[in-house]
Amino acid sequence: MIDSPAQIIAILVVALLLFGPRKLPELARGLGQSVREFKRSVEGVGESFKEAASEEKAVKKEEAAQPSQGEGQKTSEHRR
Predict the structure, then answer these.
(1) Is 0.85 surpassed by the pTM of this model?
(2) Residue 22 DSSP label
(3) Local confidence band at 29 (pLDDT 50, 70, 90 cut-offs)
(4) What is the DSSP letter of 18?
(5) Residue 21 has what DSSP assignment?
(6) Domain residues of the chain, as ranges?
(7) Exposure pattern of 28-56 as b/e (b: 16+ CB <10 Å)?
(8) How much is the CA Rg of the chain, to the nearest whole Å?
């Protein structure tokens, strides 16, 4: 983990030496786009899970509200 500002500065200096001043802005731009795309995909997955859960709850409520066909047949057979 990065504990102090001195560590951040050291990392930036090493990156500057490795990639040069011309390449660093391109790398930062690419990194920013990657992080944004990752956030969008994580939000999309979360929304799809919420939709699936709400659909599952709706199906369970419908099943609970309507008796199954097997139960209705048993009831009519017992009455005879």
Answers:
(1) no
(2) T
(3) very high
(4) H
(5) T
(6) 7-66
(7) eeeeeeeeeeeeeeeeeeeeeeeeeeeee
(8) 29
